[in-house]
Write a structure and sequence with these properties.
Elements: E1 17-31, E2 36-37, E3 41-42, E4 46-64, E5 72-77, E6 80-81, H1 86-96, E7 106-114, H2 125-143, H3 150-164, E8 176-179, E9 193-195, E10 208-212, H4 223-228, H5 236-256, H6 259-278, H7 289-305, E11 310-313, E12 319-323, H8 328-339, E13 348-352, E14 358-359
Parallel strand pairs: 5-7
Antiparallel strand pairs: 1-4, 1-14, 2-3, 4-7, 4-8, 5-6, 8-9, 10-12, 10-13, 11-12
The protein binds ligand DP6.
The site of ligand DP6 has 17 residues, from helix 4.
């Protein structure tokens, strides 16, 4: 697919008004997207586990209007007008307008809520942008007289979500999703996420992700600023080529169910992401002392018990604790007894691998 193929020829139907609702999950990257080119093109491939419980639910109400050349929309979070979300959505609309030429012909009410606590430090941009992209696709599908198939619908939804927030393109469908062209993954694309197309060992089905909310403070660095720090970064080229190597290695690991190699690769990715931030100019430390304490506790527990517990991080202080479901009784006991004390207000979220977005209405 090229970008051109996502531009619709013409719409066969007129739709005056309606409502559509989608719920879309967050995702956690195993190989991290960090660094992008213009138009939300990633510098390197990434792969993520889709989450199951951490979701955004978005209801889009649309009503036809006489276009005045601008976008017309309002945004509500948990039923309350949220004007601070508007600039990001305005930018999103500008980026996707040529692919959704109906945007200025409607007034939209975007009502959104998250299943995870607001300001928990969990990024809602992946779930939020993917939910909005899916709602807009549902309207486009009606305008096209339903003349698009599910594969195209999902691909374009992912393509649009990417233009809102890169990682959002990995939240549409599938338990493991790849984004970014890389030779070892057939069909991989810089334009949208694809379901991981190869065999995956049963141990990686029902994988658990317990998210420890270490610090719920405002993000120190926005992801856009963070990605930009990779331009001219002294280690950028090596990092991008490492991501390709990791994608290739992961293919073997996922097939074989090789947990030791999985753990090394995933933890190395998380620490590399943070190392990139620590070695950019300006530089940032996004971990907190408690993040490090938790990591050390996890390593100690793994050494003492031999259990396959590991961690990953996003661009912040929170820790995602990853483990197979078969070990969850013991590992959860350890988390509750030893790790929860490091969480702000003892807050943590038990999640697991999920399968993507769902239309609710
Ligand atoms: C560290 O997708 O939030 O979570 O494209 O600027 O919206 P934008 O960035 P975003 O970056 C996420 C980066 C990450 C790693 C990842 O999810 O792969």
């Amino acid at each position: 697919m090229t970008e051109q193929e996502f531009i619709p020829a013409s719409y066969s139907k007129t739709i005056e008004k309606g409502v559509v609702t989608w719920e879309s999950p967050s995702n956690i990257a195993l190989v991290k997207y960090w660094g992008k080119k213009p138009n939300q093109i990633p510098e390197n491939p990434s792969i993520s586990f889709t989450l199951n419980h951490c979701k955004t639910i978005t209801e889009l109400t649309y009503e036809k209007r006489d276009s005045d050349g601008s976008f017309s929309f309002e945004v509500l979070l948990d039923g309350v007008q949220k004007d601070s979300f508007k600039p990001k959505i305005e930018v999103f609309f500008e980026r996707v307008e040529s692919y959704l030429p109906f945007l200025k012909d409607y007034h939209f009410q975007i009502e959104t809520k998250n299943t995870f606590p607001h300001s928990s430090g969990i990024a809602s941009s992946a779930s939020g942008m993917s939910a909005l992209a899916l709602c807009l696709m549902s309207l486009e599908k009606q305008l096209l007289g339903d003349a698009i198939n599910d594969a195209y619908f999902n691909e374009k939804a992912s393509f649009l979500a990417r233009l809102g927030s890169g990682s959002a393109c990995r939240s549409i469908e599938g338990d493991l999703v790849v984004w970014g062209e890389t030779p070892s993954i057939e069909g991989s694309s810089d334009l949208f996420g694809i379901r991981y197309p190869y065999e995956v060992h049963a141990i990686f089905k029902e994988y658990q992700d317990t998210i420890l909310l270490i610090d719920k403070g405002e993000k120190q660095v926005s992801s856009t600023v963070g990605h930009n720090l990779m331009h001219g970064h002294p280690y950028a080229l090596n990092r991008f080529s490492q991501a390709h190597d990791h994608m290739k290695s992961l293919k073997t690991i996922l097939k074989a169910g090789d947990l030791d190699s999985f753990i090394s690769l995933v933890e190395s990715e998380a620490l590399t992401l943070h190392a990139m931030m620590m070695t950019s100019m300006p530089y940032f430390i996004l971990m907190k002392p408690k993040t490090l304490e938790v990591i050390n506790k996890i390593w100690e527990f793994r050494k003492n018990t031999g259990l396959p517990i590991s961690f990953t991080l996003d661009a912040g202080a929170n820790v995602h604790v990853l483990y197979p479901k078969s070990e969850s009784v013991e590992i959860l006991k350890f988390i509750e007894n030893e790790l929860v004390a490091y969480c702000q207000n003892e807050q943590y979220i038990c999640d697991q691998i999920g399968f993507g977005a769902n239309q609710i209405k």
